[in-house]
Amino acid sequence: MAETADDRLRLLIERIERLEEEKKGIGDDIKDVYSEGKSAGYDAKIMRQIVRLRKMKPDDRREMEAILEVYKTALGID
Amino acid sequence: MAETADDRLRLLIERIERLEEEKKGIGDDIKDVYSEGKSAGYDAKIMRQIVRLRKMKPDDRREMEAILEVYKTALGID
Q1: Distance between CA atoms of residues A69 and A58, nearest Å
Q2: 8 Å CB contact of B51 and A9
Q3: Which of A35, A51, A61, A71 is CA-nearest to residue B16?
Q4: Residues 6+ apart with CB under 8 A from B20
Q5: Do B42 and A17 touch (CB under 8 A)?
Q6: Chain B residues with beta carbon closer than 8 angstroms to that of A24
Q7: How far are the Cα atoms of A28, A64, A70, B59 from residue A74, in angstroms, in the given order?
Q8: Residues of A in contact with B29 (CB under 8 A)
Q9: In a structure prediction context, what are the per-residue pLDDT tens digits for chain A, which is 78 residues long?
């Protein structure tokens, strides 16, 4: 039997739904690792910051940190 | 050699990074399926709406659609 246009659309949508499920599963796995870190005494919020900082190029990170310092000083946050 | 606290933190962060990579890969796969749909003549934006609607419970979906109609009428969108 030939694949109709409706079948084709349905199959595409179902593939997306399966992939979204997988993506959600990995998101849950990530949460589990943060929980494991928390159980080991690490602060999950700071772990998230570390992940974000490691994603940046060192130069970009240093620039961001320098600008952050300027803003903190400007606003009297020390 | 015993695992130090620093090793432990590093291993946790690396696990998160690997999972984030995987998640990103699946996100790219999802984009590919939308592109495939587009090539087949489907509107990607409307496919996204369909995915969102299919995620909802039918009752919730119908309620949302009814309220949307009320708002559209109220604002003269027909």
Answers
A1: 16
A2: no
A3: A51
A4: A30, A51
A5: no
A6: none
A7: 40, 15, 6, 53
A8: 19
A9: 567 888 999 999 999 999 999 999 999 999 999 999 999 999 999 999 999 999 999 999 999 999 999 999 999 998
Q: How far is A61 from chain B (nearest CA, A)?
A: 17
Q: φ, ψ for residue B77 (rounded to 5)? A: -95, 110
Two tokens, residue A70:
């300027």
Number of structural domains (chain A) is 1
Domain that holds residue A19: 5-74
Which residues in chain B are closer than 8 Å to A37, comparing Cβ atoms? 9, 12
Residue B75 structure tokens: 């604002």
Distance CA A76, CA B1 (A): 46
Tell if the CB–CB gap between A40 and B16 is shorter than 8 Å.
Answer: no
Shortest CA distance from B22: residue in chain A: A26
ipTM of the complex: 0.86
Where is B23: in which H helix or E strand? helix B5-39
Nearest Cα to B14, choosing from A38, A33, A42?
A33
Helix (H, G, I), strand (E, B) or coil at B43: coil
